[in-house]
Each structure stands twice: as C-alpha cells, then as structure tokens.
Amino acid sequence: MNRTLCFALAGLLAFALGGGPCAGNVAAADYPERAIEVVVPFGAGGGSDTAARAVVEGMKPLLKHGVVVTNMPGGGATKGMLHVSQQPADGYTVLAVTTSHLIDAVKPKTRAHILNDFDPLCRIQWDTSGVIVSGDSKFKTLEELIDYGKKNPKMLKFAGTSPGGWSEIQTVAFFKTAGVQVTFVPFDSGAEIKAAILGGHIHGAVEELAETLPLIQAGKLRALCVIMDKRHPALPDVPSSVECGLNYTHGLMRAWAVKKGTPPERQKFLLEVIRKALENPTYVKYIKENHLDVRPGYLGPQETRKYWEEEIAFFAEVLKDLGYVK
Amino acid sequence: MLEIYGQAFATVLLPQNLIAMVLGALWGLLAGALPGISTSMGVVLILSFTYTLAPMTALVLLVGAYLGGITGGGITSILFGIPGEPSSVPTVIEGHALAKQGKAAAAMWTYLLCSIFGGLFSVLFMIVATPLIADFALRFGPAEYFALTILGLSVVSGLSGGSMLKGFLSCFFGLFLATIGTDGITGEERFTFGTVTLLGGVNFVVAMVGLLAVSEIMMEAEEPFKEYKGMVEYRGLLEELPRFSLFRKYWLTMIRSPIIGTIVGALPGAGATIAAFLAYGEAARTAKHEPAKFGKGAIEGLMAAECANNASTGGSMTILLSLGIPGSNTTAMLVAAFMIHGMQPGPLLLSQRPDIVYGIFTAMIVINLLLLAITGTAIRLFLQLNRLPYSVFSAAILILCVVGAFGINNSVDDMMLMFVFSLIGYFMRKFGVPVAPCILALVLGDLAELSLRRALLLSGGSPLGLVSSPISAVLLLGALVSIVYPLIKKPKMLASS
Amino acid sequence: MKTKGEVVFFAVCVAFFGFMGAQAVALMGEGRAGEIGSALWPLIALCAALGLSAVLLFQAVRRPAAAAVGGEASEPDARDEARRRRKAVVASTACFFLYLVAISFLGFILATLFFIPAFAFALGERRTKVLVAAPLILTTVMTAVFIKFLTIPFPKGVGVFAAFSRLFY
Q: Which residues contact A95 (CB under 8 A, 6 or more apart)?
C-alpha cells in the first residue's frame, strides 16, 4: 500500500477518460506502434501491482502509444505468466516477475518456466524482510528466540502467507540457518497475520518490513532482526541478520521479463525505457517512502538471469527439505 | 469530547469537504451498483484525484466512495437479481424475490433505510467503543474464526425451504466447491484437473452470478412471453415508505445485525460479505413471524443483510484507524490514501492527527445521511428501468452477468465457469434443491476449513484447542444447539416434501 | 415426467460426488504435522453429499407409482405448451453460450451487438423496432460504461475483429 499506486492510477484514469491511445492505426511502422501491455499476475492494489504501476507511470511519457497494466491474478502467479507465454514474442506484452515465479520453476508441475520461456529485462526491486514478534512478546532479542526454538523444536510457531511459496521459504530457511525447526502456519493475508500476532495467537512472522513499520514504531510489534547485510535506516536499533551471525540475506525480488524470442532490439528499447522510468522522480519518491531503496534493486538482463539461477538453486534445496519437491 | 466533535463537524461541513463527500458517495453508489467493479476497485480509481486535495477532503471523498459502494450493491441486487457487491448476495436472494412479487419499491426503501441504519449504528458504536471493538477483534484467532463459521453454517436448516435433506445436499455441495483450487495450508492443488482456471479456486462471485442470476433468467424463459415485468408500480413515497411498525416487528434483527456487522467487519479474515451472511443466517434461524418465507422474499432477511454489510464499514474503519490493519480490501486502499498525505494509519494516528480521526468519524455520519438523500431521490428513477421490454431487459441482465464474472479477474475462463454454474443452478431449482445453502457454504467453507486446520497447527493437533477460549466455546455451543434443535422439533421436515 | 427427471438428476449427483470422492481419496497423506491434511475436509463434505443424494435418489425411484397418475392426465395442449417452453429455454441458453464463445473471437462489442437481438428473439420478442433499436442502444451504453469509462479489458477478438475493437479501446 503506498502512494505511487495512486500516481499510477491517476494515469490509468486519465487513460480511461481520454479514451486511451487509439491503437487501430495499422499504418505506423516502428515499434512500438500500439500500447505495451504489462501483465501483473496479482490483483490490483497489492505490492507487485503497486510496484509495476509505479514504473509504468514513469514509462508513460516516453511511449507515444502508452502502456497499460493488466491485472491477471490467479493460481499463485501462474495464470498471468502462462498468459504472457502464450502471446506472440513481439515485445508488446511484458510480465511483471516476482520471486513466486522463481519458486514455481522448481516445482514439478510448473506450466511455464521462467528461465526457459522468458528473457529477463531487468530486476527492479529487492525488498527487505524482518523477524517480527508482538510488542509484549517474551522474546526481546533474536538470541532468546533462537534459544527457545532450539530447546523446543517445532514449538516456535510463525505465520506467513503462501504455503510452499516465498513466505514459507523465507521463514523456514531463515530459521534453518539459525538451526531452529519452526512450525509454519499459513494465513490468507498480511492483515490477518498482523492481527494474529497482536492478539497473541502466534509467536511472530518473517515479513517484508514496509507494511509493518507503523506498528513497530508504535511499539505494538517488535522487530528482532532485519534480514540484510546492514542495518535498516528506519530501524537503527535493530541488528541485521549478518550482525547476528547468520549468513542469510535473501529478499523478495521484483523484475520484468518478456517472452523468449522477442527481438533483441525491442528488448533493448524496453530496457532503456524502464531504466529511464526508474529515474523518474515519482518513482524515486515512491521507493524512498516504502524503503525499497534500502539496498540497490536494479540489475541488468545478464545479472538478473544469473541472480535468478542462483535463487532457483537455493529454493530447490529448501523445497526439497520441506518435502514439496521429491 | 463534545468540543472535539463540534470542531470535527465544522471541518467536515466545509463546502469543499461536503462536495467531496457527495461526489465520493455518488461514485461509490455507481461502483457498488455496477457488477464487474467492486467497491475496492472504485476506491482505487478515484485515489488518483486525491493528490492535490487537502488531506481531510481526500479522505472524506474516499470514505464516501467506500460507504457508497457497500450501499450501492443493494440496488442491482434488488432490481436485477445480480449482486453489485458480493456482500449483497443475501439481498439478491430475498430482495429480488420481493421485486418479482411486485414489491420492488417497498424492498428498495426497506433496503435503503436498513443500510443507513446499519451504517449509522456502526459509526456510533465505533465512536463509543473503538478500543473495545479492536480488542475484541484481536481475540479472534483461528479457533474463534472456525467457531464463527460453523455457527454461520449451522443455519442451513433455516434456509432449506421445504426439504432439509435437499438443503443439506446443497450445503455440502457448496462446502466441496470451496475446497477447489490451491489448498491454503499445504499449497497442494485440489480438484483442479490440471487447469489453471481452477488454481485460484471457484470465485464466489462467478459461482453466485451463475447460480442465482443466470439460472433465474433461464427459469423465467419458461414462462409465457410477457411485455413488462409488472413490478414498476410506484404508488408514491408515502405509500411505499415502510411503516415504523415493520421495524418494531423485527426489532431483534434490527439490533443484532448491526452488532454482528460491526464486529465481523473488524475481523481482517472476514469482512462485509461474511457479516451479511451471518446476520442473514441469524435472522433465518430465529425468524418468528414467517420462517417459511426465507429464500422466497423474506423482508427480515433483507433487513438483516443490509444492516450488517453497512455496519461492517464501521468495524473495518475501527481496526484501520486504531491499529492500521485493513479489515477489508477497500480499507487497504484507504491505507494508500493516508500515505499519500504523509500519514501512517496505526496506533499513533490518534495522538498525531486527532483532527483526522474524529473528522472521519463525523464524516461517516454525514455520508450516511447523504447516501440516504441521494439514493432516496433516485429510487423512483431506478424503478423506471423495469419499463424496458422484458426480452431486452433480460438480455441486459445477462450482459451484466458476463461483465460481473469477467471483471473480477479479467478472465474469459471465469465467464465459462459462470455458464457451468448457471446450468447447475437451473437444474437445482428445477428439482427443488435450494441454492441459498450452497452459496452460504461457498462463502464460509474456505474460512471454516482453513481456520480449523490453522487452529490444529497451533494447538499441535489437539482438538481441545478449538474450545479452549470462551469465545469459541460459546459460538460452537450455539452452533450445536442450532443444528440439533430443529431436528428434534420438526423431524418431519427431514422427509422430502 | 418430473420424477423421471428427478431420478436422473440425483443419479448424476451420486455419480459426481462419487467421482470427486475418489479424487479426494487420492489427496490423502498430504498435510503438515499435527493437522488434518488436504483430504479430510473435502472428503467429509463429499461423503455427506454422496449419502444425501443417494437417499434422495432412492426416494425419487420409489415415488413414480403414486405420481404417474397425475402425469398421465395431462392434456395435449399442456404438453405442447411444455414443449414450447422447453424450446425457449434451450434456445435462449444456447444463445447465451454462443455469446460467451463469440466474445473471444468477435470481441465484446460485436458479440454483444449480435447477442441482444438473438436472445430477445429466442425469448419470443417479435417487434422489429425493439429488435433493431435495443441492440444499438444497449451496446453503446455498455461500451461507453464498461470499456470507455471503467476500462475493463474485455477480449478484443482475433484478426480483423481485433482491429475493429481497437477502434474503441
């Protein structure tokens, strides 16, 4: 939830009222000759949607025929990905990729493979998570939490959202690095998790920090550690995971990709436009306010592919441990 | 205290704020009434206008759209039999049945008055008891959610019409439908047969539109051709306005439903739709005057649902303003609005910006009154829509059904799924299997199952964890009584009619 | 007549819930430590539904002896009327189905334009004025509200139809 959603939606509305770009003109020669569609495989208003719309807002002034966001939620993030993989590889359909797609690539039932069926354009964001417990929790430091967890295997109960997805992986993998066996309890939304922690129904959660900051600052929730190599500027008193002696810095990633086989010059064009959009003041303001600039997010196409390959290898290992992949 | 509210009223009634509220309410009513665009989408779409506005003006505009959306859902529900919002499904069941009996005007007025009453009730409740509601809502863990849904499901017998066997069949069918898709606890795919469409489960609105609205048109195609729907008679305001005695007769429903609405609205895992169904179910369970009418145009059911879904706004805003936790999709959008203007909704908001918090409280009162005035004026106009030739009228309804089914996920597959459900709904109606229990189970089933399994995860697999808190114990006991009691009292209802 | 339909309906129910029940059994064993797994809850619902539809099927099978008398007495007129009604239902349902299919190929606007008169005709509407005017007016209203104003990304159709749709959105 953040303010650039609104900037983005301002554009969307202007688009709606102004009738949109008239893409019926077939005579135009150059790419792009009609609006570029960005498929967000999640519903409107979520983190991925907001991020995509923020970038799109910066792209609009650079594209004559405009750019539209289409939300295609369903099946984790599979439905949108499948849709893009079925469109022609002409650079008119772009997929907003998140970590869920990388996790999907590990699963045996995967329907479209992010590495084999897509070419990455760039990584745009690398989010930061924290270990969060209730403000009146008996655990004051990460050490106490880990101690308790080591003495009582499986008794430490942590909430998250997507079973077999990013949320479970980051919870379980983090605690495994610390040598703790944790019980993961999946909920439907971040709001439910916060209510469950505040109500004392569950010990805590490993979650992206931006949405929990107000409750942490009010003392209702407590962050025991931020999962990063350095401290978080908004939480200077909370140690980082590396400080705590844990070699674990994974975070939620957002990137953009096109279908494999899209002409290289069109990929290059899109990358240029996106890069310029990332420097747009509106976007810069948005990531600042949502603390998405705490660590650099941008990676070029080759680096993104390499990063994806590494992450997928890591997820494969965790999912094997969890029994999702045999 | 009085001084604070006096000041708040003065701010809220400034011309620019008043205009914002009127525009927000109008837009919300439109978004709510149109299928295919939900209240939360409506709020998203006008968020962009709020940039240049003063914070208070921006917020009352959005809150206006929020309250308007929840209220607007009832209009399409009664007139066309399509829920403009998921939370007005019970309104479709009872309100549209009333409209078909030629009581559209009376149903519209009752719906409107109850909506506004529910809305105002919850605002007052929230002004008096914000910390209380928030604390109570936080005490709902998985075990309590489970107990709540079971209590909701236990009213099936009250919604079954003639045959309890068929009612329960319909209910279990709905419970099964709710399990389709990715399992929320293990991530396992269930009953998807490899399709991507079903991965996210059977969308409740898609199923609903098929089961209720389209199958209704199919049933009516069997009737001899008719010119007009015959429900346009409007005998003037004084004739159509419900009498006070109506509300006195159903006083229990009028008090209970807004309370249910406010509390359930404050639960992040539940919300307006579940609130409406729970209140509707409670009304069906305890109906003294005409229990047999439920499902066939019971005004009491309409009253309960509309009181509750509007009351959920108060609950949802309470938990948002006191803890910063959005209790519904729409309030999640409001978080964005706060952030645009440099505010973080959360525990600190009341001390940092008391003017905003009290301003929103008072604005909610004003907006409810505005909604009453706007919708009240427009009721006559809405009723004119029924003057369309019947054939065209039903074609329009079907197109709206398509828009509604498609608009949720922008998915063509959802349209086809809706068609499948219309066939199912048609045959269910044809053979006397009531549709309402199936929809009730589809709404509550997912939450019931997942809460049960979450509760068991938390208690380490011990079923005692389900009844260890007083709230869940009381709710489950109530459910038990409500299932067993009708079986003892009217065993003959078990037999098929 | 009606009882025969009922027998078929509940037989289909039994088959459906039985089949899904078998599917649910295959889900057994999935779950986390200490909870009941993916299969138990759907199995409960399916078994209960299976049992209930079996009972209802049994009741329907046993009834015809009593009900048949009433069915026999129906007049030829009434039977004609019933056939006519069934035809209207089938025709209008088919229209609706074709509409849903056509949306993907013709795009929302054209499909809607053709659907309205076809459906109205299937319902028994014969006034030319209505059959011509209503589609134009309604399609314009729907396009203006849902495509222009709310920008719902309806299917645009394929080929030349897509080009046509792009003139509007």
A: A38, A39, A41, A80, A81, A84, A118, A256, A257, A258, A259
Token pair of B360, please? 């929103």
Q: Do A320 and A108 contact (CB within 8 A), yes or no?
A: no
For chain A, the straight-line distance linking the first and the last C-alpha, in angstroms and rounded, comes to 37
Q: What value does the mean pLDDT take over residues B93-110? A: 88
| Arithmetic mean of pLDDT, C126-141 | 90
CA-to-CA dists, residue B126 to A212, B17, B165, B256, C93, angstroms: 24, 22, 41, 15, 48
Token pair listed for B265: 């609205």
Q: Is the pLDDT of residue B129 over 50?
A: yes
Residues in B closer than 8 angstroms to C153, CB to CB, are 410
Q: Report the distance separating Cα B367 and Cα B358, nearest Å.
A: 14
Chain C hits for B165, CB-CB cut-off 8 Å, are 52, 55-56
Query: For chain A, what is the radius of gyration of the CA atoms?
Result: 20
Number of domains in chain C: 2
Residues C142, C102 share a domain: yes
End-to-end CA gap in chain C:
50
**Whole-number Å distance between alpha carbons of C116 and C131:** 8
Query: Based on the domain organization, do C53 and C95 belong to the same domain?
Result: no
3-state secondary structure of B178: helix
Of C30, C46, C85, which has the smallest distance from its Cβ to B176's Cβ? C46
C65 and C31 within one domain: yes
Please check the confidence at residue C69 and state whether its pLDDT lies above 50: no
Strands A221-227 and A129-134, by their bridges, are: antiparallel
What's the per-residue H, E or C state across A258-307?
EECCCCHHHHHHHHHHHHHHHCCHHHHHHHHHCCCCCCCCCECHHHHHHH
Interface of A with C in 58-77 (CB under 8 A): 68, 70
- Interhelix angle A301-322/A99-106, rounded to 10 degrees, is 60
| C-alpha–C-alpha distance, residues B241 and B380, integer Å | 12
Average the pLDDT over each of A116-120, A290-294, B352-356 and give the range with the smallest value. A290-294
In whole numbers, what is the pLDDT of chain A averaged over residues? Answer: 84
Of C13, C47, C72, the domain-final residue: C72
Top-confidence residue, B85 or C2: B85
Please state the separation of Cα B309 from the chain's center in Å: 5
Which residue among A45, A82, A168 places its CB closest to the CB of B44?
A: A45
Closest CA to A183 of A276, A322, A12, A19: A322
> Helix H segments across B232-344?
237-240, 244-249, 251-265, 272-286, 299-323, 329-340
**C-proximal residues of A, 80-99, CB under 8 Å:** none
Residue C48: pLDDT over 60: yes
- Nearest-Cα residue of chain C relative to residue B462: C34
The interface residues of chain B toward chain C in range 309-328, judged by CB-CB distance below 8 A, are none
- My answer on whether C68 and C89 are in the same domain is no
What is the residue extent of each domain of chain B?
A: 2-494
Task: Give dist(CA A133, CA B135) in Å, integer.
Answer: 18
Tell me: do C66 and C95 sit in the same domain: no
Q: Which residues of C touch A183 (CB under 8 A)?
A: 32-34
Range of the domain at C102: 79-166
Domains assigned to chain A:
3-21+29-127+252-316 (3.40.190.150), 129-227 (3.40.190.10)
Number of Cβ within 10 Å of residue B426's Cβ equals 22
How far is C-alpha B134 from the geometric centre of its chain's CA atoms? 21
Of B73, B56, B44, nearest to B17 by C-alpha is B56
In this prediction the pTM is: 0.86
Contact in structure between B166 and B433 (CB atoms under 8 Å): yes
Q: How many residues does chain C have?
A: 169
| Residue A258 near residue A89 (C-beta atoms within 8 A) | yes
